[in-house]
Amino acid sequence: MITKNITALVNYGIAAGLLDSADRVYTINRLLELFGIEEFSEEQPIEQITDPAAFDLEGLLKEMLDYAAEQGLLPDNSIVYRDLFDTKIMGTLVPRPSDVIYTFQKLYREKGAKEATNWYYTFSQNTDYIRRYRIARDKKWKAETEYGEMDITINLSKPEKDPKAIAAAKNAKQSGYPKCQLCMENEGYAGRVNHPARQNHRIIPVQIQGSQWGFQYSPYVYYNEHCIVFNSQHIPMRIEHNTFVKLFQFVEQFPHYFVGSNADLPIVGGSILSHDHFQGGNYEFAMAKAPVEKTFQVKDFEDIQSGIVKWPMSVIRLSHADYHRIIALADVILEKWRSYTDEDAFIFAETDGEPHNTITPIARKRGGNYELDLVLRNNITTQEHPLGVYHPHAKLHHIKKENIGLIEVMGLAVLPSRLKDELEQLANAVVAGEDIRQNEVLEKHADWIEEILPKYDGKVSKENIMDILQKEVGIVFGKVLEHAGVFKRDEKGQAAFDKFISAL
């Protein structure tokens, strides 16, 4: 069986364009070495591979991993060690970095940025760096809110570690190589129990502001062509003048992509603040579609279209054909916001020497103009809100407790995997008329359910309950973003926003 699997995998690699037919014997021998097999006669798979995207790569790798486990090639037959080993398997099919870079750059020169990224995105899926079959398991839906159609995702593509793997990771020798998961040194890295394998990963170099950066896709692709652009040096994230320059220089090279940066402070920043990086992609979020509801002008920048966006968070949108003009105004806004205090609005630039104000910036090209959205952020905490005043408050934690990073800011909720089962159980419990407060798992949702059910006037059924819950999750996400907004959407909050604008 394993020799048939090896033949099938090599055929897949050729069909997917990862290998040339001239690489067949060489790659078979590499796989024989990996599995410790000394005898081989090539067997043809039952079916020829015509569409790599439709091929059951997951099923094939499962059989190969089961064999590896039986032969004692895995320290433990758990998801962590299986992921390390199947990445090693796929690494035998992937061309060298120089070949990948050559193909990408040739496509970019001859056919343009879009053709180049189309190829690279498909390549990153064919190598199994982006595991198509896991992404397909994510629960995704659209939810209509007063701010437009939000994207909701329950993340199921990132496998949960079992207790043994968690213990092994805890006891594993700490390594400073690679320094983090965003470092260039991850390319081709074998991985370890506390760091993912990346033998099947290839990075595209890009020049930004005269320095070397890397361009890759997120292995979890929360949206179409979800990419990461990262500094070749392991240096911390900062929001400053150079940030705006880098964002626009990337958009200039890839005008069909938006790109944005997480904020540079804990609570309001992303999960990795230690490595300077951006996220982008070929997708239009609800925030990008949201209209400007109020325009304004700033002295000496009258040529720039400036306005406040109709969005639950506090967003300033700047638009101009020359992005250098946008950057000049963005510098003014950032500097003013960093030092801005309005006690009546509970906005403090700093307390006890700790800075609180920063910005989440997002850049894009729209028609002949460049656009920059500046989302005002503040990470102050209080006894009442120890996780952050401008963070989802405790009453919403049953749905979303985690930080509001760049992706959420733009209108895509990345919700924890627990919600898949909890929503299914909730749906059954509501239809059956059960007392949710008596259920240990569901009790945290009880107040929410009691609040929303009267809206549907007893017209809840087995057929519509999941649609109702999904719609209401979208509404909760809108409230999550309202909590994260520094200037609230009421009259007082908007007056405070105007006060800040007038201070520019």
Tell how many strands the DSSP assignment holds.
Answer: 15
List the total number of helices. 16
Overall pLDDT: 94
Based on CA atoms alone, the radius of gyration comes out at: 25 Å
- Could you say which structural class the secondary elements and strand pairing correspond to? alpha+beta
Beta-strand proportion: 15-25%
Question: Can you summarize the main beta sheet?
Answer: 10 strands, antiparallel
- Identify low-pLDDT runs: none
Share of residues in helices: 25-40%
- The shape is globular
Give me the side-by-side strand order of the main sheet: 3-4-5-7-6-13-14-10-9-8
**N-to-C CA distance:** 70 Å
Characterise the protein shown here.
The chain has 504 residues and is α+β, with helices and mostly antiparallel strands. Among the domains are: 1-73, no CATH class; 97-236, no CATH class; 415-484, no CATH class. The chain is 37% helix and 16% strand. It is built from 16 helices and 15 strands. It has helices at 2-15, 24-35, 57-70, 79-91, 97-111, 113-126, 132-135, 163-171, 241-253, 286-289, 323-338, 406-409, 418-432, 446-452, 465-484, 491-502, and strands at 139-145, 148-154, 204-208, 211-217, 227-231, 258-260, 277-281, 292-296, 305-309, 315-320, 350-351, 354-355, 357-366, 369-378, 412-415. The strands form three sheets. It has a ten-stranded antiparallel sheet with strand order 3-4-5-7-6-13-14-10-9-8. Strands 1-2-15 form a three-stranded mixed sheet. It has a two-stranded antiparallel sheet with strand order 11-12. α5 packs antiparallel against α6 (113-126) and α9 (241-253) runs antiparallel to α11 (323-338). It is globular and about 80 Å long. The N and C termini lie far apart (70 Å).
